[in-house]
Amino acid sequence: MTAYGYARVSTEEQSLQRQLDALSGRGVLQEHIYPERASGASERRPVLDHLLTDVLTAGDTLVITDLDRLSRRTARIILTLDDLASRGITVESLYENVDTSTADGLFSVTILGALAQRERDRIAERTRAGLEAARARGRHPGRPVAVTPEQYETVLMLRGLGKSYRQVAAATGVSASTVARICRDETPGHERYRHAAAQQATLKA
């Protein structure tokens, strides 16, 4: 059972030292700390992906200073924590005092998951309201976005965790062929989906 640390900053100008000191203070050995410079909004973080898929094994602990080191999006954080828990790996977030090996830590993660689901439900509700308002005025929005931003993000997340196309398709409701296109970068980028979904959600009478 080994403790591994992950530290991330978004730009070259930012310093990792505060996080590195905190991880060392927790007792994580220097050779077990994985630093990375990558935006939290980016889906491609090779150091974190390597740590999650190739290094951590059952009984290990992932130590971070803040949960947002994993991602800026709550949904992705929850998916990561769920995946690690299913593999027998615990997570400690030092500044938020979250430890998934304890009952209180699991409770905190459950609350985060509930908040994330609430936000997804609110987005879906606003989208439906916008579409209904448009139809009431006789307007017919263009072809619906085939993949929502959340689905697009989750597809990349699950594939990064080593899930098969079929497993990802079953978990997200996206066809396996679409999963394959997303992973081959043949599908339009995430920002395009975000923009299209936002347009539909903000249609006004």
Task: Give a written overview of the molecule.
- With 205 residues, the chain is α/β, with parallel strands linked by helices.
- It has 2 domains: 115 residues, Resolvase, N-terminal catalytic domain (Rossmann fold), CATH 3.40.50; 55 residues.
- The protein has 8 helices and 5 strands, in the order βαβαβαββααααα.
- A 5-stranded mixed beta sheet has the order 2-1-3-4-5, with helices on both faces.
- Helix 4 packs across helix 8 and helix 6 packs across helix 7.
- The chain starts with a strand and ends with a helix.
- The C terminus is likely disordered.
- Total number of β-strand segments? 5
Q: Name the overall outline.
A: globular
Main β-sheet description: 5 strands, mixed
Residue-averaged pLDDT: 77
List the secondary-structure elements in sequence, H or E.
Answer: EHEHEHEEHHHHH
What topology, given as strand order, has the largest sheet?
2-1-3-4-5
How many domains? The number is: 2
Give the tags.
single chain; 205 residues; alpha/beta; Rossmann fold; 2 domains; 5-stranded mixed β-sheet; 5 strands; 52% helix; globular; disordered C terminus; Resolvase/invertase-type recombinase catalytic domain-containing protein; DNA-binding
